[in-house]
Amino acid sequence: AATRRHDWDIGYQFTSPDCVRKLAVTINGHTPGPTIRAVQGDTIVVAVKNSLLTENVAIHWHGIRQIGTPWADGTEGVTQCPILPGDTFTYTFVVDRPGTYMYHAHYGMQRSAGLNGMIVVEVPPGGQPEPFAYDKDHTVLLNDWWHKSTYEQAAGLASVPMVWVGEPQSLLINGRGRFVNCSSAPTTAASCNVSHPDCAPPVFAVVPGKTYRFRIASVTSLSALSFEIEGHEMTVVEADGHYVKPFVVKNLNIYSGETYSVLVTANQDPNRNYWLASNVVSRKPGTPTGTAILSYYGGRSSPRARPPTPPPAGPAWNDTAYRVRQSLATVAHPAHVVAPPVSSDRTILLLNTQNKIDGRIKWALNNVSFTLPHTPYLVAMKRGLLGAYDERPPPETYDHAGYDVYAVQKNPNATTSDGLYRLRFGSVVDVVLQNANMLGPNSSETHPWHLHGHDFWVLGYGAGRFDPAVHPATYNLKDPIMKNTVAVHPFGWTALRFRADNPGVWAFHCHIEAHFFMGMGVVFEEGVERVGELPPEIMGCGKTRGGH
Ligand code: C2O
Ligand code: CU
Question: The Plastocyanin-like domain covers which part of the protein (predicted)?
């Protein structure tokens, strides 16, 4: 196994990803950042220098479990103090499984400012072969993009009355998109330049007859997306680093924090180009289709030529059943089933609601809205720092017997807490995420929940209220897929199971940037006493100051 070293300088840079100039947070001047390519078993070393003059940084390696290196998870407030302006922090971790992953900032709403990218881990020579074959791969990083700064967005969310971020102005593919209406840009006309090289459409070139693996990741801040390649079928073969029993789709639903690989054979007329398209689903779209171009080598069309057809508009945004079908179709490849434990030691049932606290709109789990502590849990626990976080654990369940998930919650009040769930090391934990109606009538949206430090088995999905006496009997214990991010569909529930066997402290949250910022998350601790000596560089904030 190799050690792959990267030196990253994090800085501000004016970019024009959708032809509109905006200040972005970049890696070595680029957004998205470079794709990290490695082979299973490699050690990745990333020296991150924070050259932002007025802003902290932390970077999370999304989908990498950090076994033995919980301090490298990059979650500000959970596993480390932020990297201060001028400081360098070196992340060192092993990529222990092949697959498609991503990285992104995990400090405030910084991910949305452009600090994100992909991680591709290949099977080593002589390693266990993948259950499919292809000629070449392409990476596709999907994002949504606002013209307003992330600071304005965050300040708006925390204000009374709240200023909601609104729908994105553009959808990006590999960091490029096109704002359709330059003349109405909220900035001066000069800052919108349709011939800016930053917004030239990405071109994916294919050789007729060859099969391509498209590795697709979504780092969107808000949007659930439907992705398609015009005129081409996609066979889904990987989800979050796990092999899927192959199934064919025309549209791939992908939620923030998810990755998929699809196989596509270049078997269409090579003399024209085709659209790659991403469209918003699950929320009423206010954003035009994000596009890129698929072009055949040797065809008569020039690679950058606009396809002769309009970009595909995607499925109906509110067709939930269509998306649930994809969730249910995503099961483990028959030759790669990892059987889940047949029962669990503990069940945590989390009701997801929108609430009001001190006139502010928040998200809460069992009426507790999460706040990050100023001192990272990992340091506070290992060093026995007292009073760093609320020692009372948040509630394990809610009063579900009479709860109507289709109605507006009668009392929208909630409390805030930075308490966490402490899990017995090695125990098997079930989490059931219960979706519900929001503050307004007839509204419920999709929440993609992401677990750090683990993969979980996806045991089941259901519509309406989860009944602990009935629904566990319907779980798929035969061939559930393992994932690190899973959708909780509108008015529905999702059940997952994991083994609490990775010593550390791990965030579990909705991957919608604004939702986590508004409290939609929890934290798990397990086996923290087994964690080795912490690197002193993760300290320097809160109660960790002067602690050593
Ligand atoms: Cu990709 Cu805690 O996030
Ligand atoms: Cu959410």
Answer: 12-124, 137-298, 396-527
Question: DSSP for 186-208?
Answer: SS-GGGB-TT-GGGSPPEEEE-T
* Banded pLDDT at 32 (limits 50, 70, 90): very high
Q: 512 C-alpha vs ligand 2 centroid, how far in Å?
A: 5
Ligand 1 centre distance from Cα of residue 449 (Å):
9
Amino acid residing at 155: A
Q: Do domains 3-329 and 337-544 have the same CATH topology?
A: yes
Distance of CA 223 from the midpoint of ligand 2 (Å): 10
Distance from first CA to last CA of the chain, Å, rounded? 35
Q: Residue 94 Cα, ligand 1 centroid: separation in angstroms?
A: 18
Atom of ligand 1 nearest to the CA of 521: 2
Q: Number of C-alpha atoms within 13 angstroms, CB side, residue 299? A: 24
Cis peptide leading into residue 448 (ω within 30°): no
**127 and 1 Cβ atoms separated by less than 8 Å:** no
Domain 337-544 in this protein, CATH class: mainly beta
- DSSP-derived pairing of the beta strands 482-483 and 504-510: unpaired
Q: pLDDT by residue (tens digit) across 212-249?
A: 999 999 999 999 999 999 999 999 999 999 999 999 99
**Cβ within 8 Å of residue 197, ≥6 positions away:** none
The residue type found at 82 is: P
Rounded Cα gap, residues 225 and 230, in angstroms: 15
What SS3 class is residue 46?
Answer: strand
| Partners of 499 in the β-ladder | 428
d(CA 137, CA 52): 34
Question: What phi, psi does 150 have (nearest 5°)?
Answer: -65, -25
Closest-CA residue to 456 (of 493, 482, 494): 482
pTM comes to: 0.97
Neighbouring residues of the ion ligand 2, judged by CB less than 5 Å: 447, 510, 512, 515
Q: What are the start-end ranges of the E strands in 250-336?
A: 252-254, 259-265, 274-281, 290-296
**Ligand 1 atom nearest residue 256's Cα:** 1
Q: How far is CA 138 from CA 26, 73, 205, 475, in A?
A: 22, 26, 9, 35
Q: What is the residue extent of each domain of the chain? A: 3-329, 337-544
Query: Among residues 458, 305, 422, 434, which one has the least CA distance to residue 365?
Result: 434
Q: How far apart are CA 188 and CA 460, in angstroms?
A: 50
pLDDT recorded at residue 181 = 78
Q: Which token pair is 239?
A: 């989800």
CATH of 3-329, one of 2.60.40.420, 3.40.50.150, 3.40.50.300, 3.40.50.720: 2.60.40.420
